Model the fold of this input.
Amino acid sequence: MSQDKIFIIIPAFNEEPAIGEVIDSVRHEGYDDIIVVNDGSLDKTSQEANKKNCVVLEHLINRGKGAATQTGMDAARALGADFAVTIDADGQHDPKEIHRILEHLFDETADVTLGSRFINNQNIPLSRVLANKIGNLLTLVFYGATSTDTQSGFRGYNKKALEQIHTTFDRFEFESEVIYQARIHQLRTTEVPITVTYSKYSKDKWKGLEHMNVSQNLMNGFSMFFRMVIRSITT
Amino acid sequence: MTQEFLTYQIIILIVCGFLILRSVYLFIIKKKGLREVLLAILIWGSVSLISLFPVLLQDFAHVLGFELGVNALLVISTIVIFFILLRTLIRMDKMQNDITKLVRELALKEIKKD
Done:
């Protein structure tokens, strides 16, 4: 296990205030191979990440979290990763729990680990709960797959999964697509409970959406549904 | 057997005639293909015919099982618009995908070089 190459992938868009701290906390847990995918940020996310001496990949224009995560996974594969863990750049995930994500991959009981915010009861804002419910429903309808948290960004992959999963959705639908692809490639998936911390910074990022959480989430859900319909016609 | 045309019919005829002539001109200067010109002639020719002889629309509606010509027109227009929209969205989706592939290739260029 100590010989294994473990890459931590952090897709980031406009995360200048948080990215440095997230990288430090990941490193503090003993993971040195970090890939930051700067997804066309308009602030100094890239410079902040570069200061921390990790691999920083640049999306010249913003393509969405799904696209950035897949770029990170492609990079990890190219760099010879045995395992990869994706983690959000706003600090909502606790790097101390990376080992929990990796456990099932190490003991070979799973190829993909899905971190779930909803296994243990936590104080999660209604807007996120609603977004997750919509995501769960769409994942079930379009892909026939279920999970308690289809929209979590805290996930782990072993080498086999990294080689076989190639998502095509650019935005948040990709989280569901991962579950679908894992299923069609007959990869074993498992869920592990994770804790999330919605810091002031993280909440502020969503502030504009909080007051219209229901309508915004329904709109996002609708556009997600529409993109999934289009894709199901074309593929 | 003379027929007096109403103002709207003359306007539609002029507009359609202009659009057909424009398509033919674009075909002559090789900016449009034969298929596109034939399609333009078919579409705008049909519009001209229907505006000149509205009874044709009524006959057509009866064939399709509609009572009123205007209902047939509305239903067919909705279906055509839906398909055009769908085709546009599918093309946009493919373009978005291609852009992502390009952006990703550029991002991974350094890693692949090593």
Summary: The first strand of chain A starts at residue 6 and ends at 12.
